[in-house]
Amino acid sequence: MSKRIDISDLNVYYGDFLAVQDVTMAIEPRAVTSLIGPSGCGKSTFLRTLNRMHEVIPGARVEGKAVMDGQDLYASDVDPVQVRRQVGMVFQRPNPFPTMSIADNVLAGVKLNNKRISKADAADLVEESLRGANLWNEVKDRLDRPGSSLSGGQQQRLCIARAIAVKPQVLLMDEPCSALDPISTLAIEDLISQLKDDYTIVIVTHNMQQAARVSDATAFFNIAGTGQPGRLVEMGDTATIFSSPTVAATEDYISGRFG
Predict the structure, then answer these.
(1) Cβ-based burial of 221 (10 A; exposed 0-12, middle 13-18, buried ≥19)
(2) Are 143 and 151 a contacting pair, CB within 8 Å?
(3) Which residues contact 187 (CB under 8 A, 6 or more apart)?
(4) Per-residue pLDDT tens digits for 202-235
(5) Architecture of the domain delimited by 5-95+169-255
(6) Helix, strand or coil, per DSSP, at residue 200
(7) What are the boundaries of each domain within the chain?
C-alpha cells in the first residue's frame, strides 16, 4: 500500500549549514510529486530526508516532522534501516552491482535485509519485480548475465526492479533520467506512470517537460537570495503550477527566464 507523507516545518542541516528551510507539504499516495527548482536549492537534500539517506553524511540533521501515515519517521524509536525499507530510492545514474547477475541485482536489497527466501520464491520475486519495472521480456533469457551488461536505460529499470523487490510503499527518484537518452527516458516515464498505481512517487527533475508529463503535483524550490537555504516557494497540482502559478518566481523558472 502506498503511503501519504506529511512534512511540517522541516529544516535540514549539514553541520552549521542550513540547506533546506521551513518546508511544509503533503505528498499524496498513488500519485507522482515532482520537485523542481534551480541547482543548489535543496531538492535532492529534501528528497533524501524522506528515507533518512542524508544521515549517511556526517553532521547532517533534521528539525521538524516527516510523518508517514501517522508514523513520525524521525521518532527516537524508529530504525532508519526500516524507514529505507519502506521508502525506496533510485539514483541519478544507474548503479547496478556490476559483478552481480541481473537476478542477484534484483534480490540484493532483499538479501541485505537478511530475509531468508527459498529458490522458488526468489525466482518468483525476480520475475515479479522485473515485470513491475517493464524489463522482464528483455532480460528473461539472460538473468545470469551481469547487470552491467545491460544498456543504460535497462540498468536504470533494473535499479527500479531492485527497489520494488523489497516491497516499499514509497519510491524516491533523484533525476532518474538525466543520464539517459530520449528513448530510455520515455520508457522510464511510462514506467513511472504505471508504478503510481501502487506507490507514492517523488521525483526530482531539472526537465520541465518531464515534470509536466509525469507528475500529478509539482513543488517549486528556490534559493531565497545569495547564500540562503532552499525554500519551498509553492506547490500545487501540476497543471495549475505550469499554467497559472501564484508566485512570479515560479513562472520565471518554468518559462526559462532564470535558473
Answers:
(1) buried
(2) no
(3) 134, 153, 157
(4) 999 999 999 999 999 999 999 866 567 899 999 9
(5) 3-Layer(aba) Sandwich (3.40)
(6) strand
(7) 5-95+169-255
Task: For cell 517493464, name the residue.
Answer: 134
Buried b (16+ CB within 10 A) or exposed e, 54-75: bbeeeebebebebbbeeeebbe
Closest CA to 89 of 171, 188, 194: 171
Non-local (6+) Cβ contacts of 166 within 8 A are: 85, 88, 109, 110, 113
Give the H or E element holding residue 204.
strand 200-204
Query: The C-alpha cell of 210 is what?
Result: 518531464
Compute CA 138 distance to the chain's CA centroid, rounded to the nearest angstrom. Answer: 24
Give the gyration radius of the chain's Cα atoms. Answer: 18
| Whole-model pTM over 0.85 | yes
Number of CB atoms found within 10 A of residue 213's CB: 17
CB 246 within 8 A of CB 259: no
**CA 218 – CA 209 distance, rounded (Å):** 12
DSSP reduced 3-state for 241: helix
Q: Cell 533534521 maps to which residue?
A: 62
Interval 180-198: pLDDT, tens:
999 999 999 999 999 999 9
